[in-house]
Design a protein that fits this description.
Chain B: Belongs to the bacterial solute-binding protein 5 family. Chain B: This is Peptide ABC transporter substrate-binding protein. Chain B: It comes from Marinobacter panjinensis. The complex is a heterodimer of chains A (306) and B (580). By secondary structure, chain A is mainly alpha-helical. Chain A is built from twelve helices and no strands. In chain A, α7 crosses α9. The longest helix of chain B has 28 residues. In chain B, a hairpin with a 4-residue loop joins β4 and β5. Chain B has a six-stranded mixed beta sheet. A four-stranded mixed beta sheet of chain B has the order 1-10-9-8, with helices on one face. The chains are: A mainly alpha (306), B alpha+beta (580). Chains A and B meet through α2, α4, α6, α9 and α10 of A and α1, α2, α3, α6 and α10 of B.
Chain lengths: 306, 580
Amino acid sequence: MFSFIIRRLLVAVPTVLALITVSFVLMHAAPGGPFTNERNVPEAVMENIEAKYNLDKPLWQQYFIYVGNVAQGDLGPSFRYKDFTVNELIESSFPRSAYIGAWSFLFVVVFGVGLGVLAALKQNRWPDYTVMTAAMTGVVFPNFVMAPLLVLLFAVTLRWLPAGGWEGGQVEYIVMPIIAMATSYIAQVARITRSSMIETLRSPFIRTARAKGIPRHKIVLRHALKPALIPVVSYLGPAFVGIITGSVIIDQVFSTGGIGQHFVNGAINRDYSLILGITILVGILTIVFNAVVDILYTWLDPRVRY
Amino acid sequence: MTLINQQTKIIQRCGLSGSDVRHSVQSVLILLVLLALAACGGEGKGKAGVAALAATDISAPEARLREHPETGERLARKQVLVRGNASEPASLDPQLVQDTVGGAIVVDLFEGLTRSGPDGDTEPALAKSWASSDNNLTWTFHLREDGRWSDGTGVTAHDFVYSWRRAVDPELGSNYAYYIESAGVANAGEIIAGEKSPETLGVRALDDFTFEVSLAEPITYLPDMTVHYTMFPAPRQAIEAHGADWTKPGNMVSNGAYLLHTWHLGEKLVAARNPYYRRDDQTIIDRVVYVPIESASAELQRYASGELHMTSTVPVSQMARLKKERPDELVMAPSIATYMYTFNVNRSPFDDVRVRRALTYAIDRNIIVSYITRGEQMPAFSLTPPYVSGFDFRQPDYATWSQPERDEAARQELAKAGYTEDHPLEFELLYNTDESHKALAIVISQMWKEKLGANVTISNLEWKTFLSEKQAGNFGMARHGWKGDYNEASTFLTLLTSDSGNNDGGWSNPEYDQLLLDARSSEDPNPYYVRAEEILWQEFPVAPVYFNTTVALVSPMLKGYPENNPRNIIYSKDMYITAD
C-alpha cells in the first residue's frame, strides 16, 4: 500500500505538468485575450497593460515564469479581477463549493445507495417502480432545471427560504443549493446500485450462502453489498470532484460565491491565470480521488492487489 | 445521525437489523462526515471569522430617522438597500474600474469634482465652482474645504493631482488611461507612451483647494468629463500603505457617502455609511448591498422573492408579462447608448454607399422597439441620442417618411447598385452570442430578405472571439453598441473619426474629422455636430437601430431612483426606503 501511494505521487507530478502545458497552449490559442474589450484602447495603453502582466514577453517565457511561480504555490494575479490574486479567489470560493459539495455527496451516497438497494431487493414490485420512476425524474431534472424550480417554489411562491446568498453558510441558505446539486447524482447512483445489486444477488456465491441458510439481511449486508458497490465507487470518484468543485449553475442561480462561477467566467473573460489555477486544482483533486477509489477497491474486493 | 436513522428505517423495512447496517454503512459515513466537517472548518476559521462577519452584514444600525425630513414619509426601520448588480466588478480602484458594475459601486464609495444630476446634467460635487481661461486651455477647479477621507483626513487638490497622474502612469496599466488623453490633458499621450514621467502631466495644485488642469488642445466640456470615475481622487495614504491590496475591506479609504464594509466575491459586496462624508447627516440609507447576479432571470427571481430593492436589468423575454403584472415597478430610463450595425466599408458589397443606404432604410425600427426590445427604446436614424446634454438633436429626412416609402427608396438604391432578383445581395451579419442580439439579427435579416431579396447569413461568435474578429476588420457587417463615457455628443461622434480605435468599419472622411477637431475648442460645438451628423446621413458608415433605455425593476418602497438620468448613474445616498 505504501509503495502504491509513492508510485501514484511520482506519476502525479508529470501529469499535472502536462495538464498545465496543454491548458496553457489551448488558452493562448483562443482568439482575443484578457484585455480585449468593447472599447478598443490606443496601442500605447494596451502595451502598458500587457507589460504589467508579462503578456509582452514571448509565450515560452510566459510559460516558464508561470510554472516557476506555481512551483512556489503562487498562481499569479487574476487578469479579470484586478484586486485579487488567483490564490485569493480560490481560497474564498473553494471552501464554499466544497461545503455544499460535501453535504450533497453525503446525500448522494446515503440516498443513492439506500434507494438502489431497496429497489434491487423489491425488484419489479411497487417500491422498485417508485424508486426508479423517481430516479428517472431526477435524471431528466439536471441542476439547471432543478435550481430555478426550487427558487420559484420555495422562495418566490412560498417565501420559506431565501432565493440566494450564503451568509456564512446558514442552513436556510444552503438547503436549496444542496438539493439542486444532489438530485441528479442521487438518481444516477440509485440506478447504478440497483442494477449492480441485482447482478450480485444472482451470483453463485450468494446462492451458496442462501443454500447454507444464512438469513437474507446478512447475505445482503455482509456478502452482497461490498461487491455490488464496486461500479458505484467507480462512478462516485470522478463525480465527487465534480460535486465539490461546485457548479456554474448553482453559483449563478444562488449567488453562493462558490468556485463554479469562475470556471465559465474565467473562460469567457480569457482570465488565463484563473483558468489555469482552477485546472490545476481540479487536476490534483482528480488524481487524489482516483487514488482513493483505487484504495477503496482493495477493501471492496479482496482480489485486487497493488 | 438522523441520516443513519433514516437509512436504518429503510433497510429495517426490508427485514434487516440495525447492527448490520451500522457495521457496513458506518465506515463510509464517517469518512463523509469528516469531509463535511473539514469543509465547515475551512469556511469558518480560515479567514478571520468570515462566517461571523457575514452574519452581521445585515445587522445594520436602526435608521436614524423615523420620517423623511422633507416629505414626511414614514421610513423603514432598517435602511439597507439591496441592489442587483449584474456581475462582479473587475476592480474597485477608481483608476482601474472599467465596467458599469464597478462604476455603480465606485460612485457610492468615492466623490469626484462633479456629479451627474437627476436629469444627467453635470452638477458641482467636490468642486464648488470652475472656470476656464486662455481659450479653454486652462481649467481651474475650486474645491470645497469640507471634503474628508474615511480616515478623517481632508481631501485636497493634491489628491486629484495624484490620482490623475496615477491614471496615466504606465506602471498602473489602466485601461482608462486613454480617457485622460482624450480629455486633452497636456503630456498625457507622451506619459502613456513612456516618453515622459507622470509628474509632467498638466495638472497642478495651486493650493490645497485649487486644482488646475492644463490642456494640450482646448475642450469646452472638461467639467462633464470629470463626472467619470477615472478622474476621481485616490487615497494616496492607503495606496502607499497597502499597495495592490488597498481596495480590500479594512484597507480601503474612500471619500464618498459610503465606505467598503465587506466583500464576498460572487455573493455580495456591502458598503456602510461613511461617518466622515461631508454631507453624512443627509444620507438616509445606512447600508448598500450589491449582489452580483449574472443571469437576468435569476435576478428577477431574487427580486420577486423580495430580496432585492432594484434589479440591474430585466430579461427581454419577460417584458410583456412584467408590463402587465408590475407596471408601476418597471422603470425604463433613457440611456445615452445607441444600438447599430457597422458596415465594413472596405469590403464588397458595403464599399457601395447605395447598398449601405438601402439596408439602413429597410430596417423597420418601429417593429423592433414595439415587439422585440419592448423597453420604450426610441427608433434611431442618427448616431447621437437626443437625450445627450446640450446636443442639438436633428433627424435626417428619411426619419419622417413612412416605412413603405423608405422600403421603396431602398429598393431603388439597390437596383442602382446593380442587385436584382437574379443577382441578389449576399452578405454575412456577425453578432456576439446573446439572446437579444440573436432576436434582432433574425428579425432584421428577415426584413432585408423580404423587402430587398437579400440573402443574409447570420453568425454568432463567443464574445472575445467576436471582438477580436471585429477589431481586426474580419467582417462584412457586425453588431455594435456604444454607450457614452460622458454626457456630451463628442463621445458618440468621435467613434467614427479616422483615428478612432473603435472605428472598426474603416470609414474615413477628412471633412468629418476636421469638424470634430474644430468642435473641441468652439464655444458652441453644436453647428459642427449637426454638420457631422449630416455627413453620416449621407455616407451611412453605420446603420443606427435604436437609442437604448435602461430597464429595471424598482421596489415601490425605494424612493429617489433617478428615472430620467440618461447617464444611468445611481447614487445610493440620494435614495431612501419607506416603511410601506
